[in-house]
Amino acid sequence: MKTVTIYTDGACSGNPGPGGWGAILMYGAHKKELSGGEASTTNNRMELTAVISALELLKEPCAVELWSDSKYVIDALDKGWAKGWRAKGWIKSDKKPALNPDLWARLLDLCEIHTVRTHWVKGHAENEYNNRCDELAVLESRKFR
Predict the structure, then answer these.
(1) Which residue is catalytic, options 10, 19, 20, 22?
(2) Which of 20, 47, 114, 140 is catalytic?
(3) In angstroms, rounded to a whole number, what is the distance separating the alpha carbons of residues 59 and 21?
(4) Is the pTM of this model over 0.85?
(5) Active site residue 109
(6) CA–CA distance from 9 to each of 27, 32, 89, 97 (Å)?
(7) Residues forming beta bridges with residue 20, ordered by sequence position
């Protein structure tokens, strides 16, 4: 199984507001950047979209080292929250509806295809790949202002 490293980030000007996402996929000497955005969205939707878009690009099941500065994404995957929400019909433990069930469903399906190990990285710090993803996300969000 190939091991792919993925960095992702999302950005939103206002919440909701114009948003963007960026991702970098690396495998061996290969590196691919991708990005996109929406006119009216939230930061968390952009964080999720970045991860989903990167995973959907993989043509075969891979071992994925996923780096994100989003505690929302990392914790929901690592701590099993998202799987719990799905099992309970997208209801959280506090009995409130889970947000973004459409995106979480897609991401959980992709996590069944790929072996995803998550890593949290401090945002707006020293990590060049996280900073580049942030730059891509912000550039995309500005297209909708």
Answers:
(1) 10
(2) 47
(3) 21
(4) yes
(5) no
(6) 19, 15, 27, 24
(7) 11, 37
Q: Is 10 labeled as catalytic in the residue annotation?
A: yes
Q: Identify the active-site residue in 56, 80, 102, 124.
A: 124
> Which listed residue (22, 37, 69, 140) is catalytic?
69
Annotated active-site residue 78? The verdict is no
Query: What topology is assigned to 3-75+101-142 in CATH?
Result: Nucleotidyltransferase; domain 5 (3.30.420)
Virtual torsion, Cα 130, 111, 116, 33, nearest 10 deg: -30
* pLDDT one-digit tens code per residue, 32-69: 999 999 999 999 999 999 999 999 999 999 999 999 99
